[in-house]
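Subject: Interface between my chains keeps coming out wrong

I've been trying for a while to get a sensible model of this assembly. When I model each chain on its own everything looks fine, but I need the whole thing in one frame so I can look at the contacts. Pasting all components below, labels as-is. Any help appreciated, I'm running out of ideas.
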Amino acid sequence: MFASIPNFKDFWSEWDTNRKLECLRLLNEIVCEFDKLLSKPKFSSVEKIKTVGSTYMAAAGLNETETDYDDDVYLEKQSHGKFNNNLRIGNTAFRNANVMIEFALAMSQILDGLNRDSFQNFELRIGMSVGPLVAGVIGAQKPQYDIWGNTVNLASRMDTHGEPRKIHATTDMGNILRAGGYRVQSRGKIRVKGVKEPMETFLIEVDSKRNSSVSGEQTNNHNNNNNCHHSTL
Amino acid sequence: MFASIPNFKDFWSEWDTNRKLECLRLLNEIVCEFDKLLSKPKFSSVEKIKTVGSTYMAAAGLNETETDYDDDVYLEKQSHGKFNNNLRIGNTAFRNANVMIEFALAMSQILDGLNRDSFQNFELRIGMSVGPLVAGVIGAQKPQYDIWGNTVNLASRMDTHGEPRKIHATTDMGNILRAGGYRVQSRGKIRVKGVKEPMETFLIEVDSKRNSSVSGEQTNNHNNNNNCHHSTL
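Reply #2:
Try treating it as a single job with all components included. I did that and got this:
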């Protein structure tokens, strides 16, 4: 997931150079409030990757092995190629997608609260995708855990091509969410840099979601050494 | 300074998903070799900020106070508005610009060596600017020291608008380098996003620079609490 605050840039440019530090203090407050969500048990599977400017990058399911996804294949076979809500709810991909959506909604609520306190009008624009990626630590000085791959690039592009107060999801992510009972709105096929064919993407309103029956709480937390993951971000 | 390896992307996309980890290992080796430069005494004023993908971000002079630049103003007045090599060499702005150039050249030499060992053809494309910026630490989870401001944006854009094996510098940075005796090549005026008027930028060849008489070695390392800096990156 890439969650950015596009109108933070306007706020930033309104201030003189010697007042920029105050803008940063507000950004720090926002990011620290988002960070607090990570300690909630329901978001135990969410990993913050980093912030880049006013963009918050996080992923769910990074600690899962590929065998965790075998259940998904079994369930998909059971449903004979059709999406079946009962069967798919509870599978790994949906569980991660759901927790990521819940996290984005919680971020949005936090931002609304901070807006009221600081008389601002910041809005979140969120991009999400699901799929395999590579994770690792780069560098000797200031080493940083990061993630790479097409799934990561797609999530970033869903953010940049997205709309304020909406979650913009890839085809795969949208299908998983729809199968799980989320109200997703097709945006039709759009051209995305790095993808040959135009792809169908989906928008999820931040304000009008169904109350998920799946809590997204996860107790399995494998500490494996396998750096190849299939994750939701 | 933003130093990126544009053709790392081609290398990355040549490999299957399950071989991406090997690409990352090579990137890690490159970044770790760049990191080793930071421990050299001549680069003691260089601060690595972070890597973003295959882009290495660093700055010089972050620990200097604004009063360190008073000498610059005095020297500029002495030279009656004209650039005067003798007077300007040794001033703070040039010293930082020079050390940043030396750092970029050292990075380039390291990459050439790694290319020979790994039969690759990676090239550095470098963007630089000079000016005021804001620095600070953002976030409670995975807090990261970072820098912000127009100077930072300009350096990044010099990189993206640059050419392989060349350093692309802003007007101010180019003037400082030229005054210090560097052979800089004007690229004419180009339009840069975020800057109203087209700006003259300069290219410095990575392979054919003069041997600087200024070592760039710095012994003053103020640990001040002032987070507003005038830096070279």
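Reply #3:
Confirming on my end. Chain A has one domain: 2-213+228-232.
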